[in-house]
Amino acid sequence: MNDKDKVFQVITSAHDDCRRQIAAGKVQRWEVVKWGVAVNVALATAAAALGRNIPLRVILLLAVAVAIASLLLLGHYNKRMSGARRTATTLAARLRSYHIDYDAILETDVARSYSTDEYYDLPELIIFSAIIGM
Length: 134
Hints:
The protein is mostly helical.
């Protein structure tokens, strides 16, 4: 095996890692949404069950803290996915030196598709943020 083959294997392995990171990021974002909603539903249930025994301000502050933490985690996972997309774009371009046109195989322009950077999943992020905000 020559050096060129080894470099090709590293590129394809790194590209697989990028796809796994993106997939894992989507799962993690969804888990954050589920966690945030579950905690806030639990807080609302506790408020209803305890009635006047606990100040409403305390419940409200906890709910706001959970929503903020959830939104921060969504942003964190989104940035990680954006980094993986940037790396995938670089690796797809690098595959051209091995006469592999990744864009032609997928019938897409990876660089253009991923060029929106952190706003690649904007509709999804808006929905998730709205769910958490409510």
